[in-house]
Write a structure and sequence with these properties.
Elements: H1 7-15, H2 32-49, E1 58-63, H3 65-73, H4 77-80, E2 83-89, H5 105-109, H6 115-121, E3 131-136, E4 155-158, H7 166-169, H8 171-182
Helix pairs in contact: 1-8, 2-3
């Protein structure tokens, strides 16, 4: 979506001491594949602009469809090699029945029977090397069934009572995302 969706979370991260926090505009992309390509290019720009060496890793936090774009982007080995942790917030990892109410290319990409999800199914059970933390809520009425926001093999965190936008607006969620990024991964990374 729009980078302003992440304004509060970015401000929280800055207050907690994270020096470099970026947001990317994806909502004008034609489809989820185009979003994935744009994300790959954006991360390359961030790496270049910050003079990051080949071993430097980046954390991604994605909301909703941005999580699908992020997972598609991870299919590129050179992109995946740059990412330490992907945190998804209300991402319909297995699609959503709500997408049937849309008539857009992006909406069609989110239908459970979309070829996108057949492709992503090859990543499950999640085994890395990128650490995946998926936040989900039974109260998120845009992700149906709600459990499609969880991923087998990932670290799944249920946020009780959270709606689709609560992830972006609730300070408790910002704190949980912060903690997820600080927590060591399965291989001892952080």
């Amino acid at each position: 979506g729009d980078p302003t969706n992440f304004y509060a979370l970015r401000a929280y991260f800055a207050a907690m001491g994270r020096r470099r926090v970026y947001a990317i505009y994806l909502s004008d992309a034609a489809d989820v594949e185009a979003m994935a390509l744009r994300l790959q290019a954006f991360v390359s720009e961030v790496v270049s602009a910050n003079g990051l060496g080949p071993e430097a890793k980046i954390d991604l936090v994605a909301h909703s469809q941005g999580g699908i774009a992020s997972r598609l982007a991870l299919d590129a080995p050179e992109f995946a090699a740059r990412i330490a942790t992907l945190v998804t917030l209300g991402t319909p990892h297995a699609g959503t029945h709500v997408a049937r109410f849309t008539a857009t290319r992006q909406g069609n990409d989110l239908r459970r029977e979309s070829p996108i999800f057949a492709r992503l199914a090859a990543q499950v059970p999640w085994r890395g090397p990128v650490r995946l933390v998926a936040f989900w809520s039974a109260s998120d009425l845009l992700v149906m069934p709600a459990t499609s926001a969880a991923v087998v093999g990932a670290e799944n965190i249920e946020m009780v009572g959270y709606t689709h936008l609560s992830y972006l607006l609730a300070p408790k969620c910002w704190q949980r995302v912060w903690e997820a990024l600080l927590a060591p991964g399965p291989e001892g990374g952080g």
